[in-house]
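Dock iron/sulfur cluster; give full complex structure.
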Amino acid sequence: MATKSLQAKGKDLAIANKQLEILNGGIFADGELPYFKDNIAKIGHFPLRPKKLEILQINVGYMCNQVCEHCHVDAGPDRKEIMTRETMQQCLEVIKNTGAHTLDLTGGAPEMNPNFRWFVEEAAKAGIKDFIVRSNLTIIRANKKYYDLPDFFKKHNVHVISSMPHYTRGKTDKQRGDGVFDKSIKALQELNERGYGMPGSDLRLDLVYNPSGAYLPGDQMALQADFKKALKEDFNIDFHNLFAITNLPIARFLDYLIASENYEDYMYALVEAYNPSAVANVMCTNTISISWDGWLYDCDFNQMLDLKVASKVKHIKDYNEDILNDRNIIISQHCYGCTAGSGSSCQGTVA
Amino acid sequence: MADSYYDPKDLRKFGKITEWSENLGTKFFDYYGEVFKEGALTAREKSLIALAVAHTEKCPYCIDAYTKDGLQKGITKEEMMEAVHVGAAIKSGAALVHGVQMMNKHDKLSM
Ligand code: SF4
Ligand code: SF4
């Protein structure tokens, strides 16, 4: 289990360029595996272009109470990048005027941003249809000041999406750290008590599953059935949907793949599982990702690789949806993570 | 040429079998895919059976493949180990049950 971010450890892979060198080099540069670009060109999707904007995903900071080994954000308690109120204000302007129907707050642990509650209250007023907060569950039990988060979420009709690596303690704690499982269970029970995740309830509670290692997620529906059965039988927990998400080979997960000598096999597995019919619906085609400091990206992954949108409009202060939507999406080999099998996005499978 | 009989990288090339005999290769992979689909048995149950058989067949490729497949399906290591023991128990039982033959022969030959 990691205790520090790559950035705090001063690791090479904390630098986006180094990650891109790896993703563009090696088995891809020597022709063993095809570039993502070449594969999507075959089906007429290069350059990759956005469709109608549906989701604004705002990353309010890389600070997190956890240091998960697979984290593509390289988040942790030592990360100090946090969205300021001023940037939030600029985001609010955009939220009020956007054509997007979904607002998706992520981090780090978004709740750790000191302006988080103010921001949620203000954003909720904009009346956006689906207001998501990605909560890691343990934050709710991390400190007294967070104990009332389930009530706060309910008050603002927030759609909670939470990560849950497995329905067994062993597998969960291995990926996320000791005690994470018990805390997550407690948090889920509290959300259930407020009506979250209950059958027929409007208070949405979805879970995110991503593999704890160098392998791809199995069938989303089968996993969902296993999770539902086990969580119900063992802990009387209900939730709505399970999203099976593929780990993309960037940041800490890339570091892990290389250190465990799984990188090549993993890339082979991704390329082998490439599904052309997932391409049209990859997340970047309907999402804009905004970083803690207001820069705009095609997705949260490109944000971590520091690949800002290829548009005249690059920052929230200059936001213009029409100009922004008329752009080419920046791709590299990490994109194979979005097109493997049934595809993968922050909302689960796409194909 | 590889200088050992088993190379983990060869598993990636399994699909190439089809290149030298398209008809038979395709038939095999279609059949294989069909077998492992959700049916009267779940895909999860089939994966555990495959893991057990991979061990009794002592096929290193299959062991790698079905350990990974089990992880993908959320199968725990305890479940995987129990499946391996099922395979091993059948293997040892199959050896041991021949002890009856030994006993029969022994008694037949003895006065
Ligand atoms: S995966 Fe989520 S919970 Fe874990 S360190 Fe990253 S942001 Fe935090
Ligand atoms: S990694 Fe980002 S840019 Fe690449 S396909 Fe996925 S969502 Fe699109």
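Observed: The mean pLDDT of chain B is 95.
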